[in-house]
């Protein structure tokens, strides 16, 4: 006896323990038959623990058993059917959370739930576990709800050993309902139209990617090659932090930096940021998935960055300070000379060597002349100095000073 659950991220095939748990499985099967679960959110996901759904309100506080629907409030609850041989031993275990709500375990050995909830099924091998993995890897808010809504789209009863209760046929819709449940009260945050999917294959990306200059960036910096692995994110909530963006965008690949641009004096967020990925492909995937998504109650806009923030900051600052068209815009930011005349590199080479002074005579008496060892931190900057006898890493320069010096 089994049910096929079609979700917005893939299918889950559930085998039911109808003989061991007849009351629980009958409730589940009949709710599936009347399409009670269509549109239900996965309202709570605890990574590597469980994923819960089955509440038409999407809040985790609603949902009714089929017995309540058929017979009224007196049959709202039904007895647990906890069996010692049905445990939360394996990932993919299906158990009842109350009324209509149920959950899947996302790892093996969730023993802490044994004896507390009725285990009434197990997902089949293959694609079902791939779907479960996608749910487990989803990006979550602080309440455990995925930022991108994951819903049950349809349920199909493949085998039902139980007789139909009176009046059940009246509740079975002619067509499988599409869209979110009418009882849903959870905050709306779906980024992709409910029955549409985004094709993120390489062919689709290469054929459909259109790089558009973002208004804030003004088309990028002239003469600077534009990066293809950086996203520009705007319309952020001021409370959003760098760490939040890093966590959210990391689901698409390795994020090397996530930087919210801030007002230089106050440190207040300017409500836009740059997200840099390790690869171009991860950047493109994030662009298609995150446009118009909801982060801290704000719907963000995502575009391909036309520059990186550090170069843009230098460019902007130099433009503010410059009274003429020329200037060292991309090297040191100064407006009073051209890049070819910039001596920043020379200054870096000649700015001096870091060292610490070691007084060998402070505690040992000695003669009237003090000697000091200058221990250089950077061996490479002092290659022309002779090695001090006994030194194993640093180059040492002996300096003598008179008592009056």
Question: What do you see in this structure?
Answer:
Strand 12 (294-295) and strand 13 form a beta hairpin. The N and C termini lie far apart (95 Å). Helix content is 19%, strand content 22%. The protein has nine helices and 17 strands. It has an eight-stranded antiparallel sheet. It has a four-stranded antiparallel sheet with strand order 10-11-9-14, covered by helices on one side. With 405 residues, it is an alpha+beta fold. The chain has helices at 22-33, 66-71, 127-136, 168-171, 202-208, 242-249, 280-290, 309-321, 344-350, and strands at residues 2-7, 10-16, 44-46, 50-53, 93-98, 101-105, 119-123, 152-157, 230-234, 255-262, 269-277, 294-295, 298-299, 301-304, 355-359, 370-376, 396-401. The longest helix has 13 residues, at 309-321. Among the domains are: 2-181, Cyclophilin-like (Cyclophilin), CATH 2.40.100.10; 230-323, Alpha-Beta Plaits (2-Layer Sandwich), CATH 3.30.70.330. Mean pLDDT is 76; it is low at 190-224 and 346-405. Belongs to the cyclophilin-type PPIase family. PPIL4 subfamily. Residues 172-193, 349-405 are annotated as: Disordered.
